[in-house]
Amino acid sequence: MNYAYLRVSSSKQDLEHQRTAILNYANRCSLTKVEFIEETISSRKNDRAIYDLIDDFQAGDNLIIFELSRLARSMKELESIRVKLSEKGVDIHAISQNLVISSDKNDIATRALIFALELSAEIERNMISERTKNALAVKKASGAKLGRPRKSQLDGKRDEILKYKELGLNITAISKLLGVHRNTLDNWLKLHGSELLT
């Protein structure tokens, strides 16, 4: 079976452009019976239709895409998808790049491309890592606290704690009323005690 994956923005013109280019390519290469899978660009990786489509592929199937950037958002993701499709015996046709990524591991052009993809993915990972480290170093140098702010089960109970304190109850009594350990309340008061006075 031949599948055409269309990942588009909200532009209908872009969708039709991809569809026409894929149909022309399929006709030229005698790839008949093309099933189109359309997807609007999503920010959530796990919701993408391509991952459901990968599960449905059989050995000998073809995936036709307009260009590689439509298949993945990063070199790392592209390499991950390529590996999954290769394991299933699926060839990828990227028509803008005039490229066929064969599932045949002995194909020299595919092996060269795989090396290039893996190298690019590693460079991309290193660049992201360096940017992240540099940004964190700048934040730390400016005095910002790093890491996620710690959440407490008492964060939404400020008014209740204030009421009990005004009644003159001690920490042990308040913690029992709130259903938390005394240390939990003690730690919360150390962090937020000054807020109770405002």
Provide structural commentary.
With 198 residues, the protein is of the alpha/beta class. The chain has two domains: 2-124, Resolvase, N-terminal catalytic domain (Rossmann fold); 158-196. It is 55% helix and 13% strand. The chain has eight helices and five strands. The protein has a five-stranded mixed beta sheet, with helices on both faces. Strand 1 (2-8), helix 1 and strand 2 (34-40) form a beta-alpha-beta unit. Helix 4 packs antiparallel against helix 5 (108-141) and helix 7 (171-178) crosses helix 8. The radius of gyration is 28 Å and the shape is elongated. The chain starts with a strand and ends with a helix.
Features:
single chain; 198 residues; alpha/beta; Rossmann fold; 2 domains; 5-stranded mixed sheet; 5 strands; 55% helix; 13% strand
Order of helices and strands: EHEHEHHEEHHHH
CATH topology of the largest domain: Rossmann fold
Tell the overall outline: elongated
Helix content: 55-70%
The Cα radius of gyration reads: 28 Å
- Write down the domain tally: 2
Strand residue percentage: 5-15%
Provide a concise account of the structure shown:
The protein has helices at residues 12-28, 49-56, 68-71, 75-88, 108-141, 158-166, 171-178, 182-196, and strands spanning 2-8, 34-40, 62-65, 91-94, 99-101. With 198 residues, it is α/β, with parallel strands linked by helices.
